[in-house]
Amino acid sequence: MNTALVLITLSAAGISSAQEASRLDGITPVTTDTLTNPSDGDWLHWRRTYDGWGYSPLEQINKENVANLGVAWTWSLTPGATETTPIVHDGVLFIHNNMDTIQAIDGASGDLLWQYVRDMPKSVIDSGTGTNGATKRNIAIYEDKIIVATTDVHIIALDAKTGKLVWDVQPADFNKGFRYSAGPVIADGVIVQGMTGCGNGQPGGCFISGHNPDTGEELWRLNTIARDDSWNGLPIEARYGASVWIAGTYDPATNTVFSGVGQPYPWIAEMSGLSPASTKEGVTNDALYTDSTLALDPETGELKWHHQHLKNDTWDLDYIYERILVDMPVDGKDRQLLVTAGKLGIVEVIDRNNGDWVWGVETVPQNVVSAIDPVTGEKTINPDAIPRIGETTVNCPADPGGRGWPATAYSPRTQNLYLPLAEFCSNTTPQPLDAGQIYTGGGRATFARIPVEGSDGNIGRIDAVNLADRSTSWSYRQRAPITSALLPTAGGLVFGGSWDRNFYAFDDETGDILWQIRTNNVVNAFPISYEVDGKQYVAVAVGRGSSQANTLASLTPEIQNPVAGSVLWVFALPDAK
Question: Would you say which domain of life the source belongs to (predicted)?
Protein backbone atom coordinates (compact mmCIF):
# COMPACT_ATOMS: atom_id res chain seq x y z
CA MET A 1 0.00 0.00 0.00
CA ASN A 2 1.24 3.47 -0.90
CA THR A 3 1.53 5.41 2.38
CA ALA A 4 3.43 8.36 0.97
CA LEU A 5 0.53 10.74 0.49
CA VAL A 6 -1.88 11.78 3.21
CA LEU A 7 -4.65 14.23 2.30
CA ILE A 8 -6.31 16.40 4.95
CA THR A 9 -9.59 18.15 4.17
CA LEU A 10 -11.76 20.29 6.41
CA SER A 11 -15.51 20.75 6.32
CA ALA A 12 -18.03 22.64 8.42
CA ALA A 13 -19.20 19.42 10.00
CA GLY A 14 -15.98 17.54 10.59
CA ILE A 15 -12.47 16.56 9.58
CA SER A 16 -11.65 13.91 7.01
CA SER A 17 -8.24 12.42 6.27
CA ALA A 18 -7.68 10.08 3.32
CA GLN A 19 -4.76 7.90 2.37
CA GLU A 20 -4.12 6.81 -1.20
CA ALA A 21 -4.57 3.05 -1.58
CA SER A 22 -5.36 0.65 -4.36
CA ARG A 23 -8.03 -0.98 -2.21
CA LEU A 24 -10.04 2.26 -2.36
CA ASP A 25 -9.47 2.54 -6.09
CA GLY A 26 -11.18 -0.82 -6.53
CA ILE A 27 -14.44 0.11 -4.80
CA THR A 28 -17.45 -0.23 -7.10
CA PRO A 29 -20.80 1.56 -6.69
CA VAL A 30 -23.34 -0.21 -4.50
CA THR A 31 -26.53 -0.31 -6.55
CA THR A 32 -30.00 -1.45 -5.56
CA ASP A 33 -29.21 -4.76 -7.26
CA THR A 34 -25.96 -5.03 -5.27
CA LEU A 35 -27.86 -4.54 -2.03
CA THR A 36 -30.47 -7.11 -3.08
CA ASN A 37 -27.89 -9.69 -4.18
CA PRO A 38 -24.68 -8.98 -2.24
CA SER A 39 -21.47 -10.85 -2.84
CA ASP A 40 -20.87 -13.66 -0.35
CA GLY A 41 -17.71 -11.87 0.77
CA ASP A 42 -19.35 -8.50 1.42
CA TRP A 43 -21.31 -7.36 4.48
CA LEU A 44 -23.43 -4.53 3.08
CA HIS A 45 -26.31 -4.27 5.55
CA TRP A 46 -26.58 -4.18 9.31
CA ARG A 47 -27.51 -7.90 9.24
CA ARG A 48 -25.67 -8.53 5.92
CA THR A 49 -28.78 -9.08 3.77
CA TYR A 50 -32.16 -7.42 3.40
CA ASP A 51 -33.89 -10.38 5.07
CA GLY A 52 -32.10 -9.63 8.36
CA TRP A 53 -30.66 -13.11 8.85
CA GLY A 54 -27.24 -12.00 10.10
CA TYR A 55 -25.87 -15.11 8.37
CA SER A 56 -22.61 -15.48 6.46
CA PRO A 57 -22.50 -17.94 3.51
CA LEU A 58 -18.72 -18.18 3.84
CA GLU A 59 -17.39 -21.60 4.87
CA GLN A 60 -13.61 -21.39 4.71
CA ILE A 61 -13.66 -21.21 8.51
CA ASN A 62 -15.59 -24.29 9.65
CA LYS A 63 -16.04 -26.84 12.40
CA GLU A 64 -12.98 -28.81 11.35
CA ASN A 65 -10.49 -25.93 11.38
CA VAL A 66 -11.93 -23.24 13.67
CA ALA A 67 -9.61 -24.40 16.46
CA ASN A 68 -6.79 -22.83 14.41
CA LEU A 69 -8.47 -19.41 14.23
CA GLY A 70 -6.13 -16.61 15.25
CA VAL A 71 -5.90 -12.83 15.36
CA ALA A 72 -5.31 -11.34 11.91
CA TRP A 73 -5.20 -7.72 13.09
CA THR A 74 -6.72 -5.31 15.59
CA TRP A 75 -7.66 -1.64 15.42
CA SER A 76 -8.16 0.69 18.39
CA LEU A 77 -11.44 2.59 18.34
CA THR A 78 -12.58 5.77 20.04
CA PRO A 79 -13.22 4.99 23.74
CA GLY A 80 -16.83 4.62 24.81
CA ALA A 81 -19.76 2.33 24.26
CA THR A 82 -19.10 0.27 21.15
CA GLU A 83 -22.23 -1.36 19.75
CA THR A 84 -21.16 -1.01 16.14
CA THR A 85 -21.53 -3.17 13.02
CA PRO A 86 -18.79 -2.80 10.40
CA ILE A 87 -19.84 -2.93 6.77
CA VAL A 88 -17.50 -4.36 4.13
CA HIS A 89 -17.45 -3.80 0.38
CA ASP A 90 -14.76 -4.79 -2.12
CA GLY A 91 -12.29 -5.47 0.67
CA VAL A 92 -12.77 -2.14 2.47
CA LEU A 93 -14.19 -2.19 6.00
CA PHE A 94 -16.12 0.88 7.17
CA ILE A 95 -16.71 1.34 10.89
CA HIS A 96 -18.42 3.83 13.19
CA ASN A 97 -16.62 4.91 16.36
CA ASN A 98 -18.21 6.43 19.45
CA MET A 99 -18.97 10.15 18.90
CA ASP A 100 -19.03 9.75 15.12
CA THR A 101 -15.54 9.08 13.87
CA ILE A 102 -16.00 7.05 10.69
CA GLN A 103 -13.08 5.07 9.32
CA ALA A 104 -12.29 3.11 6.17
CA ILE A 105 -9.82 0.30 6.81
CA ASP A 106 -8.18 -2.23 4.51
CA GLY A 107 -10.04 -5.43 5.41
CA ALA A 108 -6.97 -7.62 4.88
CA SER A 109 -4.13 -5.58 6.37
CA GLY A 110 -5.91 -3.43 8.94
CA ASP A 111 -4.37 -0.25 7.50
CA LEU A 112 -6.33 3.01 7.80
CA LEU A 113 -7.44 4.33 4.41
CA TRP A 114 -9.37 7.42 5.53
CA GLN A 115 -11.25 8.78 8.50
CA TYR A 116 -13.95 11.37 9.10
CA VAL A 117 -14.12 13.02 12.54
CA ARG A 118 -17.40 14.74 13.37
CA ASP A 119 -17.07 18.22 14.86
CA MET A 120 -19.54 17.94 17.71
CA PRO A 121 -21.45 20.94 19.09
CA LYS A 122 -20.57 21.83 22.68
CA SER A 123 -24.13 21.05 23.80
CA VAL A 124 -23.69 17.45 22.61
CA ILE A 125 -20.35 17.02 24.36
CA ASP A 126 -21.59 18.63 27.57
CA SER A 127 -24.73 16.46 27.62
CA GLY A 128 -22.75 13.40 28.63
CA THR A 129 -24.10 11.46 25.66
CA GLY A 130 -20.54 10.55 24.73
CA THR A 131 -21.03 7.07 26.20
CA ASN A 132 -24.01 4.90 25.33
CA GLY A 133 -25.85 7.65 23.43
CA ALA A 134 -22.98 8.24 21.03
CA THR A 135 -22.67 4.73 19.65
CA LYS A 136 -24.45 3.80 16.43
CA ARG A 137 -25.45 0.21 15.87
CA ASN A 138 -25.12 0.46 12.10
CA ILE A 139 -24.22 2.65 9.16
CA ALA A 140 -25.21 2.12 5.52
CA ILE A 141 -23.64 2.16 2.07
CA TYR A 142 -25.35 3.13 -1.17
CA GLU A 143 -23.98 4.07 -4.59
CA ASP A 144 -20.69 5.84 -3.73
CA LYS A 145 -21.68 7.06 -0.28
CA ILE A 146 -21.50 5.99 3.36
CA ILE A 147 -24.70 7.10 5.16
CA VAL A 148 -24.49 7.90 8.87
CA ALA A 149 -27.06 9.03 11.44
CA THR A 150 -25.03 11.22 13.80
CA THR A 151 -25.01 11.84 17.53
CA ASP A 152 -26.06 15.48 17.01
CA VAL A 153 -29.13 14.21 15.09
CA HIS A 154 -28.05 14.87 11.53
CA ILE A 155 -27.94 12.43 8.63
CA ILE A 156 -24.76 12.74 6.59
CA ALA A 157 -23.29 11.19 3.46
CA LEU A 158 -19.55 10.62 3.06
CA ASP A 159 -17.74 9.80 -0.16
CA ALA A 160 -16.84 6.11 0.16
CA LYS A 161 -13.46 6.60 -1.53
CA THR A 162 -12.28 9.72 0.29
CA GLY A 163 -14.36 10.20 3.45
CA LYS A 164 -15.23 13.74 2.37
CA LEU A 165 -18.62 15.10 3.41
CA VAL A 166 -21.08 15.06 0.50
CA TRP A 167 -24.22 16.36 2.23
CA ASP A 168 -25.58 17.01 5.72
CA VAL A 169 -29.22 17.40 6.81
CA GLN A 170 -30.83 17.86 10.23
CA PRO A 171 -34.20 16.08 10.68
CA ALA A 172 -34.63 17.09 14.36
CA ASP A 173 -33.06 19.06 17.19
CA PHE A 174 -30.68 17.35 19.59
CA ASN A 175 -31.38 20.05 22.18
CA LYS A 176 -35.04 18.99 22.26
CA GLY A 177 -34.11 15.46 23.28
CA PHE A 178 -34.14 13.68 19.93
CA ARG A 179 -31.45 11.06 19.31
CA TYR A 180 -30.15 8.52 16.81
CA SER A 181 -28.79 5.20 18.11
CA ALA A 182 -29.04 3.18 14.89
CA GLY A 183 -28.49 3.93 11.24
CA PRO A 184 -30.68 3.59 8.17
CA VAL A 185 -31.83 0.86 5.86
CA ILE A 186 -31.63 1.66 2.14
CA ALA A 187 -34.91 0.54 0.56
CA ASP A 188 -35.76 1.00 -3.11
CA GLY A 189 -33.30 3.86 -3.35
CA VAL A 190 -34.63 5.64 -0.24
CA ILE A 191 -32.80 6.21 3.06
CA VAL A 192 -35.22 5.04 5.78
CA GLN A 193 -34.20 6.25 9.23
CA GLY A 194 -35.84 5.85 12.63
CA MET A 195 -35.77 8.53 15.35
CA THR A 196 -35.30 7.82 19.05
CA GLY A 197 -34.96 9.68 22.35
CA CYS A 198 -38.71 10.19 22.60
CA GLY A 199 -38.85 9.31 26.26
CA ASN A 200 -37.33 12.73 26.88
CA GLY A 201 -40.69 14.43 27.00
CA GLN A 202 -41.21 15.25 23.32
CA PRO A 203 -44.96 15.70 22.84
CA GLY A 204 -46.27 13.41 20.12
CA GLY A 205 -43.39 10.95 20.18
CA CYS A 206 -40.99 9.80 17.50
CA PHE A 207 -41.05 9.16 13.75
CA ILE A 208 -39.51 7.35 10.81
CA SER A 209 -38.36 9.47 7.88
CA GLY A 210 -37.44 8.80 4.25
CA HIS A 211 -34.61 10.70 2.54
CA ASN A 212 -33.20 11.24 -0.95
CA PRO A 213 -29.74 9.56 -1.12
CA ASP A 214 -28.40 12.22 -3.51
CA THR A 215 -29.20 15.22 -1.32
CA GLY A 216 -30.53 14.01 2.04
CA GLU A 217 -33.81 15.84 1.39
CA GLU A 218 -36.65 14.52 3.53
CA LEU A 219 -39.26 12.84 1.34
CA TRP A 220 -41.78 11.77 3.98
CA ARG A 221 -42.30 11.32 7.72
CA LEU A 222 -44.38 8.69 9.53
CA ASN A 223 -45.33 9.32 13.16
CA THR A 224 -44.80 6.25 15.34
CA ILE A 225 -47.44 7.40 17.84
CA ALA A 226 -50.82 6.93 16.21
CA ARG A 227 -53.12 9.92 15.85
CA ASP A 228 -56.13 7.78 16.77
CA ASP A 229 -58.24 6.82 19.79
CA SER A 230 -55.92 4.11 21.15
CA TRP A 231 -54.38 6.39 23.83
CA ASN A 232 -57.25 6.42 26.31
CA GLY A 233 -58.36 9.85 25.20
CA LEU A 234 -54.96 11.50 25.76
CA PRO A 235 -54.30 14.51 23.51
CA ILE A 236 -51.38 14.17 21.08
CA GLU A 237 -49.19 16.49 23.16
CA ALA A 238 -49.55 14.15 26.17
CA ARG A 239 -48.41 11.06 24.27
CA TYR A 240 -44.72 10.15 24.63
CA GLY A 241 -42.30 7.47 23.45
CA ALA A 242 -42.48 5.10 20.45
CA SER A 243 -38.77 5.43 19.69
CA VAL A 244 -37.24 3.56 16.74
CA TRP A 245 -33.74 2.67 17.89
CA ILE A 246 -32.99 -0.37 15.73
CA ALA A 247 -32.75 -0.38 11.92
CA GLY A 248 -35.55 -1.93 9.88
CA THR A 249 -35.67 -4.82 7.42
CA TYR A 250 -36.67 -4.59 3.76
CA ASP A 251 -38.53 -7.00 1.46
CA PRO A 252 -37.75 -6.04 -2.17
CA ALA A 253 -40.40 -8.45 -3.50
CA THR A 254 -43.24 -6.50 -1.90
CA ASN A 255 -41.35 -3.18 -1.57
CA THR A 256 -42.01 -3.11 2.17
CA VAL A 257 -39.90 -1.91 5.09
CA PHE A 258 -40.57 -3.63 8.42
CA SER A 259 -39.70 -1.68 11.55
CA GLY A 260 -40.11 -2.26 15.25
CA VAL A 261 -41.31 0.48 17.60
CA GLY A 262 -40.44 1.01 21.26
CA GLN A 263 -42.64 1.47 24.32
CA PRO A 264 -44.76 4.38 25.63
CA TYR A 265 -43.39 6.80 28.24
CA PRO A 266 -43.47 7.09 31.18
CA TRP A 267 -43.33 3.32 31.57
CA ILE A 268 -45.83 3.04 34.38
CA ALA A 269 -49.35 3.14 32.90
CA GLU A 270 -50.81 4.80 35.98
CA MET A 271 -48.53 7.78 35.31
CA SER A 272 -48.90 7.89 31.53
CA GLY A 273 -52.68 8.25 31.53
CA LEU A 274 -53.15 4.82 29.97
CA SER A 275 -54.62 3.13 33.06
CA PRO A 276 -57.29 2.26 33.90
CA ALA A 277 -58.73 1.43 30.50
CA SER A 278 -61.36 3.83 29.27
CA THR A 279 -64.94 2.59 29.12
CA LYS A 280 -65.84 5.15 26.47
CA GLU A 281 -66.96 3.48 23.25
CA GLY A 282 -64.37 3.58 20.50
CA VAL A 283 -61.45 4.45 22.81
CA THR A 284 -58.80 1.99 24.05
CA ASN A 285 -55.58 2.21 26.01
CA ASP A 286 -53.56 0.08 23.53
CA ALA A 287 -51.15 2.98 22.82
CA LEU A 288 -50.53 2.38 19.13
CA TYR A 289 -48.02 2.07 17.52
CA THR A 290 -45.84 1.27 20.52
CA ASP A 291 -44.36 -2.25 20.75
CA SER A 292 -45.51 -2.95 17.20
CA THR A 293 -44.25 -4.14 13.85
CA LEU A 294 -44.90 -1.51 11.17
CA ALA A 295 -45.01 -2.40 7.48
CA LEU A 296 -44.48 0.71 5.36
CA ASP A 297 -43.93 1.79 1.78
CA PRO A 298 -40.39 3.22 1.43
CA GLU A 299 -41.38 5.52 -1.44
CA THR A 300 -44.22 7.27 0.35
CA GLY A 301 -43.97 6.34 4.03
CA GLU A 302 -47.52 5.02 3.86
CA LEU A 303 -48.35 2.50 6.58
CA LYS A 304 -49.51 -0.73 4.95
CA TRP A 305 -50.37 -2.56 8.19
CA HIS A 306 -49.28 -2.94 11.79
CA HIS A 307 -49.18 -5.72 14.37
CA GLN A 308 -49.01 -4.76 18.04
CA HIS A 309 -47.12 -7.35 20.07
CA LEU A 310 -47.67 -5.84 23.53
CA LYS A 311 -50.48 -3.39 24.28
CA ASN A 312 -49.98 -0.57 26.77
CA ASP A 313 -46.47 -1.66 27.80
CA THR A 314 -46.05 -0.65 31.44
CA TRP A 315 -42.76 -2.53 32.02
CA ASP A 316 -40.31 -1.08 29.42
CA LEU A 317 -40.43 -4.37 27.50
CA ASP A 318 -39.80 -3.09 23.96
CA TYR A 319 -40.56 -4.94 20.75
CA ILE A 320 -38.12 -2.77 18.81
CA TYR A 321 -35.66 -5.41 17.64
CA GLU A 322 -34.73 -6.88 14.26
CA ARG A 323 -37.38 -8.34 11.97
CA ILE A 324 -36.18 -11.51 10.20
CA LEU A 325 -37.84 -12.59 6.95
CA VAL A 326 -38.12 -16.34 6.33
CA ASP A 327 -40.17 -18.37 3.85
CA MET A 328 -41.15 -21.87 5.00
CA PRO A 329 -44.15 -24.17 5.27
CA VAL A 330 -46.51 -23.82 8.23
CA ASP A 331 -48.98 -26.67 8.73
CA GLY A 332 -48.24 -27.86 5.18
CA LYS A 333 -48.76 -24.46 3.53
CA ASP A 334 -45.96 -22.21 2.25
CA ARG A 335 -45.90 -18.93 4.19
CA GLN A 336 -43.92 -15.70 3.97
CA LEU A 337 -43.03 -15.08 7.60
CA LEU A 338 -41.64 -12.31 9.77
CA VAL A 339 -39.86 -13.44 12.93
CA THR A 340 -39.03 -11.27 15.92
CA ALA A 341 -38.52 -11.49 19.68
CA GLY A 342 -38.97 -8.59 22.09
CA LYS A 343 -37.56 -8.18 25.57
CA LEU A 344 -39.94 -10.86 26.86
CA GLY A 345 -37.86 -13.39 24.92
CA ILE A 346 -40.93 -14.82 23.19
CA VAL A 347 -40.20 -15.81 19.58
CA GLU A 348 -43.13 -14.43 17.60
CA VAL A 349 -43.94 -15.29 14.00
CA ILE A 350 -46.43 -13.30 11.91
CA ASP A 351 -47.39 -13.28 8.24
CA ARG A 352 -45.37 -10.52 6.59
CA ASN A 353 -48.05 -9.80 4.00
CA ASN A 354 -50.72 -8.74 6.47
CA GLY A 355 -49.38 -9.02 10.04
CA ASP A 356 -51.58 -11.97 11.00
CA TRP A 357 -50.39 -14.07 13.93
CA VAL A 358 -48.84 -17.46 13.05
CA TRP A 359 -47.21 -18.84 16.22
CA GLY A 360 -45.08 -18.04 19.26
CA VAL A 361 -42.60 -19.89 21.51
CA GLU A 362 -41.34 -18.80 24.95
CA THR A 363 -37.66 -19.04 25.88
CA VAL A 364 -36.50 -17.39 29.16
CA PRO A 365 -38.60 -17.31 32.34
CA GLN A 366 -41.21 -14.52 32.22
CA ASN A 367 -44.27 -13.71 34.34
CA VAL A 368 -45.86 -10.83 32.39
CA VAL A 369 -47.83 -12.84 29.82
CA SER A 370 -49.91 -15.64 31.30
CA ALA A 371 -51.34 -16.92 27.99
CA ILE A 372 -51.24 -16.31 24.24
CA ASP A 373 -54.26 -17.05 22.03
CA PRO A 374 -52.96 -19.60 19.47
CA VAL A 375 -55.18 -18.18 16.72
CA THR A 376 -54.95 -14.41 17.17
CA GLY A 377 -51.79 -14.02 19.24
CA GLU A 378 -53.70 -11.92 21.78
CA LYS A 379 -51.79 -11.87 25.07
CA THR A 380 -53.39 -12.29 28.49
CA ILE A 381 -51.50 -10.22 31.04
CA ASN A 382 -50.77 -11.49 34.54
CA PRO A 383 -52.37 -8.85 36.80
CA ASP A 384 -49.89 -9.58 39.61
CA ALA A 385 -47.02 -8.42 37.37
CA ILE A 386 -48.48 -4.97 36.62
CA PRO A 387 -46.51 -2.22 38.43
CA ARG A 388 -48.64 0.05 40.59
CA ILE A 389 -47.87 3.28 42.41
CA GLY A 390 -47.08 2.63 46.06
CA GLU A 391 -46.19 -1.02 45.45
CA THR A 392 -43.20 -3.11 44.40
CA THR A 393 -43.85 -5.94 41.98
CA VAL A 394 -41.65 -8.76 40.72
CA ASN A 395 -41.23 -8.69 36.94
CA CYS A 396 -39.45 -11.37 34.90
CA PRO A 397 -37.66 -10.15 32.91
CA ALA A 398 -37.17 -6.42 33.57
CA ASP A 399 -36.13 -3.49 31.43
CA PRO A 400 -32.85 -4.77 29.88
CA GLY A 401 -34.91 -7.68 28.59
CA GLY A 402 -34.69 -11.44 28.49
CA ARG A 403 -33.10 -10.47 25.23
CA GLY A 404 -31.73 -7.01 24.48
CA TRP A 405 -30.49 -5.10 21.46
CA PRO A 406 -27.80 -7.72 20.54
CA ALA A 407 -29.45 -9.31 17.54
CA THR A 408 -30.77 -12.79 16.97
CA ALA A 409 -29.76 -14.56 13.75
CA TYR A 410 -31.12 -17.23 11.40
CA SER A 411 -29.25 -19.99 9.60
CA PRO A 412 -30.78 -21.64 6.51
CA ARG A 413 -28.30 -24.47 7.12
CA THR A 414 -30.05 -25.57 10.30
CA GLN A 415 -33.33 -23.59 10.11
CA ASN A 416 -32.46 -22.43 13.61
CA LEU A 417 -33.06 -18.98 15.06
CA TYR A 418 -30.17 -18.24 17.42
CA LEU A 419 -31.04 -15.96 20.36
CA PRO A 420 -28.73 -14.24 22.90
CA LEU A 421 -30.70 -14.35 26.16
CA ALA A 422 -30.53 -13.51 29.86
CA GLU A 423 -32.31 -15.07 32.84
CA PHE A 424 -33.23 -12.52 35.53
CA CYS A 425 -36.06 -10.63 37.20
CA SER A 426 -36.45 -7.35 39.07
CA ASN A 427 -38.27 -5.74 41.93
CA THR A 428 -40.03 -2.88 40.13
CA THR A 429 -41.02 0.27 42.01
CA PRO A 430 -42.79 3.20 40.30
CA GLN A 431 -41.50 6.73 40.90
CA PRO A 432 -44.66 8.84 40.79
CA LEU A 433 -44.74 12.51 39.89
CA ASP A 434 -45.26 14.87 42.80
CA ALA A 435 -48.49 16.81 42.99
CA GLY A 436 -48.40 19.48 40.29
CA GLN A 437 -45.12 18.16 38.81
CA ILE A 438 -44.98 18.24 35.02
CA TYR A 439 -43.59 15.21 33.17
CA THR A 440 -40.36 16.17 31.39
CA GLY A 441 -39.09 12.73 30.44
CA GLY A 442 -37.84 9.41 31.74
CA GLY A 443 -39.30 6.03 32.58
CA ARG A 444 -40.30 6.83 36.16
CA ALA A 445 -39.51 3.42 37.65
CA THR A 446 -36.72 1.75 39.62
CA PHE A 447 -35.68 -1.79 38.68
CA ALA A 448 -33.74 -3.72 41.33
CA ARG A 449 -32.46 -6.72 39.38
CA ILE A 450 -32.53 -10.14 40.99
CA PRO A 451 -31.97 -13.71 39.76
CA VAL A 452 -34.97 -15.79 38.74
CA GLU A 453 -36.48 -17.88 41.52
CA GLY A 454 -34.40 -21.02 42.06
CA SER A 455 -31.56 -19.73 39.86
CA ASP A 456 -28.42 -21.83 39.62
CA GLY A 457 -26.41 -18.63 39.10
CA ASN A 458 -26.27 -18.76 35.32
CA ILE A 459 -27.47 -15.50 33.74
CA GLY A 460 -26.20 -15.82 30.17
CA ARG A 461 -27.90 -18.09 27.70
CA ILE A 462 -28.08 -18.85 23.96
CA ASP A 463 -31.02 -20.78 22.54
CA ALA A 464 -31.30 -22.36 19.10
CA VAL A 465 -35.00 -22.52 18.17
CA ASN A 466 -35.89 -24.50 15.08
CA LEU A 467 -38.38 -22.47 13.03
CA ALA A 468 -39.56 -25.50 11.07
CA ASP A 469 -40.89 -27.50 14.02
CA ARG A 470 -40.72 -24.89 16.86
CA SER A 471 -38.47 -27.10 18.97
CA THR A 472 -35.40 -26.00 20.92
CA SER A 473 -32.42 -27.57 19.15
CA TRP A 474 -30.08 -26.66 21.99
CA SER A 475 -29.62 -24.24 24.86
CA TYR A 476 -26.26 -23.07 26.19
CA ARG A 477 -26.06 -21.44 29.63
CA GLN A 478 -23.23 -19.76 31.55
CA ARG A 479 -22.65 -17.35 34.43
CA ALA A 480 -21.64 -14.29 32.37
CA PRO A 481 -24.41 -12.48 30.44
CA ILE A 482 -24.34 -12.85 26.66
CA THR A 483 -23.70 -9.31 25.41
CA SER A 484 -23.14 -9.58 21.65
CA ALA A 485 -25.29 -10.36 18.65
CA LEU A 486 -24.89 -13.80 17.10
CA LEU A 487 -23.32 -14.75 13.77
CA PRO A 488 -24.10 -18.13 12.17
CA THR A 489 -22.06 -19.19 9.14
CA ALA A 490 -22.15 -21.77 6.37
CA GLY A 491 -19.13 -23.35 8.05
CA GLY A 492 -21.45 -24.72 10.74
CA LEU A 493 -20.48 -22.16 13.38
CA VAL A 494 -22.23 -19.57 15.52
CA PHE A 495 -20.05 -16.73 16.83
CA GLY A 496 -20.96 -14.65 19.88
CA GLY A 497 -19.49 -13.01 22.96
CA SER A 498 -20.18 -12.19 26.59
CA TRP A 499 -19.63 -9.84 29.51
CA ASP A 500 -16.55 -11.76 30.70
CA ARG A 501 -14.66 -10.69 27.52
CA ASN A 502 -14.88 -14.10 25.85
CA PHE A 503 -15.64 -14.51 22.15
CA TYR A 504 -16.82 -17.97 21.13
CA ALA A 505 -17.46 -20.19 18.14
CA PHE A 506 -20.27 -22.67 18.86
CA ASP A 507 -21.24 -25.75 16.87
CA ASP A 508 -24.46 -24.64 15.13
CA GLU A 509 -26.09 -28.08 15.61
CA THR A 510 -25.11 -28.91 19.19
CA GLY A 511 -24.10 -25.69 20.95
CA ASP A 512 -20.69 -27.13 21.86
CA ILE A 513 -17.90 -24.56 22.18
CA LEU A 514 -15.35 -25.27 19.44
CA TRP A 515 -13.13 -22.21 19.94
CA GLN A 516 -12.84 -19.22 22.22
CA ILE A 517 -10.57 -16.26 22.88
CA ARG A 518 -10.35 -13.71 25.69
CA THR A 519 -10.44 -10.16 24.35
CA ASN A 520 -9.43 -6.94 26.09
CA ASN A 521 -12.97 -5.75 26.86
CA VAL A 522 -16.67 -6.57 26.72
CA VAL A 523 -17.81 -8.22 23.50
CA ASN A 524 -20.78 -5.93 23.06
CA ALA A 525 -21.42 -5.44 19.34
CA PHE A 526 -22.41 -7.21 16.12
CA PRO A 527 -19.91 -9.75 14.74
CA ILE A 528 -19.58 -10.07 10.98
CA SER A 529 -17.72 -12.25 8.49
CA TYR A 530 -16.28 -11.12 5.18
CA GLU A 531 -13.77 -12.14 2.51
CA VAL A 532 -10.82 -10.32 0.97
CA ASP A 533 -8.60 -11.81 -1.74
CA GLY A 534 -10.10 -15.25 -1.16
CA LYS A 535 -9.52 -15.24 2.61
CA GLN A 536 -12.36 -15.29 5.16
CA TYR A 537 -12.29 -13.05 8.21
CA VAL A 538 -14.47 -12.73 11.32
CA ALA A 539 -14.62 -9.31 12.96
CA VAL A 540 -16.18 -7.96 16.15
CA ALA A 541 -15.81 -4.74 18.12
CA VAL A 542 -15.42 -4.71 21.89
CA GLY A 543 -15.81 -1.88 24.38
CA ARG A 544 -17.59 -1.13 27.61
CA GLY A 545 -20.40 1.40 27.98
CA SER A 546 -23.61 -0.20 26.80
CA SER A 547 -26.38 0.44 29.33
CA GLN A 548 -27.86 -3.00 28.69
CA ALA A 549 -24.59 -4.83 29.41
CA ASN A 550 -23.77 -2.67 32.41
CA THR A 551 -27.20 -3.35 33.88
CA LEU A 552 -26.96 -7.11 33.43
CA ALA A 553 -23.50 -6.98 34.98
CA SER A 554 -25.06 -6.03 38.32
CA LEU A 555 -26.12 -9.67 38.55
CA THR A 556 -22.50 -10.86 38.30
CA PRO A 557 -20.53 -8.37 40.43
CA GLU A 558 -17.49 -10.63 40.61
CA ILE A 559 -16.82 -10.13 36.86
CA GLN A 560 -14.85 -6.90 36.43
CA ASN A 561 -13.89 -5.24 33.15
CA PRO A 562 -11.73 -2.29 32.09
CA VAL A 563 -13.46 1.08 31.90
CA ALA A 564 -11.82 1.89 28.55
CA GLY A 565 -10.38 -0.05 25.65
CA SER A 566 -12.58 -0.14 22.54
CA VAL A 567 -11.00 -2.30 19.84
CA LEU A 568 -11.98 -3.98 16.58
CA TRP A 569 -10.74 -7.58 16.62
CA VAL A 570 -10.35 -9.40 13.31
CA PHE A 571 -9.70 -13.14 13.11
CA ALA A 572 -8.61 -15.49 10.32
CA LEU A 573 -7.06 -18.90 9.75
CA PRO A 574 -3.26 -19.02 9.36
CA ASP A 575 -1.94 -18.90 5.83
CA ALA A 576 -1.02 -22.28 4.36
CA LYS A 577 2.73 -22.95 4.46
Answer: Bacteria
